[in-house]
Amino acid sequence: MDLGIKGKRALVCAASKGLGRGCAEALAAAGVDLVINSRTESEITQTAHEIATKYGVSVTPVAADITTAEGRAKVLDAVQQADILVTNAGGPPPGDWQDWSRDDFIKAIDANMLSAVALMQALVPGMMDRGWGRVVNITSQSVKSPIAVLGLSNTARAGLTGFVAGMSRQVAGKGVCVNNILPGIHDTDRATGLDGGVAKAKGITPSEARTQREATIPTGTYGTPQDFGATCAFLCSQQARFIVGQNILLDGGALNATM
Questions:
Q1: Tell me, what DSSP letter sits at residue 244?
Q2: Which of 54, 94, 187, 252 is the most buried (most CB within 10 A)?
Q3: Rounded Cα–Cα distance for residues 71 and 87 (Å)
Q4: Are strands 33-38 and 59-63 parallel, antiparallel or unpaired?
Q5: Per residue in 110-132, pLDDT tens?
Q6: Which SS3 state, helix, strand or coil, does residue 10 take?
Q7: Whole-angstrom Cα distance, residue 182 to residue 158?
């Protein structure tokens, strides 16, 4: 399928690996020019080179922490304007609700809610002026099914979901579609870290922890960044013009719910 977005310009955050890279590669395969960021210069530079070489599109790497005002300013200076925005930031660490301080919550909200809001505030007005735009926010399955040890993430990402629910309807009439993708367990460093925590708590190996978690997923496997990227690219396509304010769950069927 021709997604109809060849020649568009996208900002994809936290894109050196994992789900962010999956999104960047899928957009590049559709002919989209990219600005991508991550905190580590060597990693994001190498990723940019690999994607540009493979897909023949322009890829500008920016080493910056997207969760900080300084990092966002650096990225926005590089992108100037974008037709497509994919927000993404690593989730806060697991823990126990009794141990989290106010500062812990503020840090999580800054990273996983307010950073995405700030990027939308910076780039969506230009999309509205030009009459076309797509925004995909990478959130979490915890928005629909909270994960107890990830309470900081539950809180921040639910806040972003509420913001998008209202804001997306306000901009849709200008040709801008804003949606969220809610990843379940995908084969990324985040999943590896969570499996390591489970392994340590249960006194088993990380491989055993992964096998146990895979058994809770109807597909019997973890998702891949490529699965995730394909969904992201479709939500950024011309064909997605009637998808507004939705929360697309990619979890292999793990959430057992009718709706």
A1: -
A2: 252
A3: 13
A4: parallel
A5: 999 999 999 999 999 999 999 99
A6: strand
A7: 11
Residue 181's beta-bridge partner residues?
138, 248
Which residue type is seen at 168? S
Q: Return the percentage of the chain with pLDDT > 90, whole number.
A: 86
pLDDT tens per residue, range 124-153: 999 999 999 999 999 999 999 988 989 999
By CB atoms closer than 10 A (0-12, 13-18, 19+), residue 144 is middle
Instruction: Give CA–CA dist 123/135, Å, rounded.
Output: 10
Length of the chain equals 259
Give strand pairing partners of 38: 63
Q: From the DSSP assignment, how many helices (H) and strands (E) are in the chain?
A: 9, 7
Residue the block writes with tokens 């925590």:
197
DSSP assignment string, 162-183: HHHHHHHHHHGGGTEEEEEEEE
Are 168 and 244 in contact by the 8 Å Cβ rule? The answer is yes
Q: What does the block give as tokens for 67?
A: 């969760």
Structure tokens at 113: 């809610």
Bridge partners, residue 179, by sequence: 136
Helix, strand, coil abundance in the chain, percent, nearest 5: 50, 15, 35
Closest CA to 181 of 101, 235, 113: 235
Enter the pTM of the model. 0.94
